[in-house]
Amino acid sequence: MGDEEGLACGVHHALGGHSIWEHHDQQEERIYMDYNATTPLESEVILAITEALHDAWGNPSSSYRPGRKAKTIINQSRENVGRMVGGQAEDILFTSGGTEANNLVFHTAVKHFWESWEEAEKKGQEKSHLNGKAILPHIITSNVEHDSVRLTADNLMKEGKADVTFVPVSKVTARAEVEDVMAAVRPTTCLISVMLANNETGVLMPVREICERVRSLNKQRPAPRILLHTDAAQAIGKVRVDVQELGIDYLTIVGHKFYGPRIGALYVNGPGTITPVFPMFFGGGQERNFRPGTENTPMIAGLGKAAELVSSHLPQHESHLRDIRLYLEQRLQDVFGMEKIRFNSHFPGSESLPNTCNVSILGPGLQGQRVLSSCRRLLASVGAACHSNRGDRPSHILLSSGIPAEVAANALRLSVGRRTTRGDVDLVVEDLWETVRRLEGQD
C-alpha cells in the first residue's frame, strides 16, 4: 500500500467510516459555522416580532390601546435586556445596533471631557495647555477592536477631536494586558474601551481587572473621570456577562449575535445621573432624549425575547457550545494531524469563547478564502464579516496576536452555534479534508 493510499485509508477510519468521496454526486447539505458573524432568529423571537407587528402597531408615545400595547412591550423588553446583563431596565437604551451604541459612547466621552475640563478651568484647576501642547481628550482602546470602535477612534483623530492610543495586545496571550492599558493613561484620558471577547480569536479580555484599576485611579485624580466601556457583542449568549461584576460604565449589546434581530442596545450605569450620555440625534424625546426617534417596537420585542432566552438557558448553551467546539478541534487533529494544523484561538494564560475555533490548515495554496470557496458543505469565514473584501490578506487581528503571516493567511474562523451537532462537525471536517486534497492535487 502506497503512502497516499494508506493516508486516505487512515483518514477514512478517522472520519468514522464515511467514504470521503461518497457525497460528491449528491446535492450537499450546507453546514453553517459562522455564528460569530450572525445568528438565525429563534422561533420564539420570530413569534414575538410577528405578534408585535400585528398587535402593537401603534405609536408607543400615544395614549390609545395599540400605542399602550407597544409601550408595554418596549418596557418588558427593556426589563429583559437589563436582566440579561445584570443591570436595571432604566440602564438600557435601545439603538439601531452595536455600531450606533459604540459611536454614542465615544461621542459622549469627548463631550463629557470638555464639560469636565471647562468646569475645572472655571475653578482654576486646569489650564488650556498641558506641557506646551493644546489639550485634546485622550482615548485608550486595543488594536484588535471591531471596526465600529477602531474606525470611530480613527475618525476622531483625523478630525483633530481626540488623541487615541491603540494598546497592542500581547503576542503571547492575545489579550490587552492590564498593565499595558494602565501605562497608557494620561491626565487627559477620558475613555477606555476594550472589547469583552475578540470576534476572531475568541480571547476574553481582562475587562473586570481593568475596571478595578481605573475605578481606583479615578478616586485619586482630578477631573475628567475616565469612563469605561466594553463592546460585549461576541460574549453575550455564550458566556456570563454581568455589568456589576465587570464594574463597567457602558456595555454594547448586539441582538443578531444571540439569535435576536439586527438592532442593539447600550447599557449605561445610571444614564444621565451616574454616567453621562450625550445624544447624537435630536427629535421627539424617545429613550429619555438620549436616543430620540419613534421606537422600532417589533424589533425591540424580538430583542427582549432573545434576551429572555439567554437568561433562561445560558448554562446549557455554553456547555453545548464548548462540547461541540472541543469535538471539532479533536476531529481536526485526528484527521489532519497536529503537524498540518495550527489553532489560532489557543493562547497560554487566556480564556476564550466556548464556540470559537480559529484554525489554519498549513501548506502552500491553502489560503483561508481559497479553501472556503472550494468547500462543498461548509459555510464559514476567515474572520470578521466586515473584512470580507480584503481577499487573502492575513487578518491584522491574528498578526497582532503573534500569529505568523503565512499561518494567518490560511486561517479559518469556525464558530459553532446552539444547534450545531457532532454529526455536523464530522461532515465539515470531511469536507475540509476533501477540499485540501483537491487543492493539493492529490485527487
Automatic annotation (TrEMBL):
Its cofactor is pyridoxal 5'-phosphate. It comes from Megalops atlanticus (Tarpon). The keyword Cytoplasm applies. Gene3D superfamilies: 1.10.260.50, Aspartate Aminotransferase, domain 1, Type I PLP-dependent aspartate aminotransferase-like (Major domain). This is Selenocysteine lyase. Its EC number is 4.4.1.16. Homodimer. Signal peptide: none annotated.
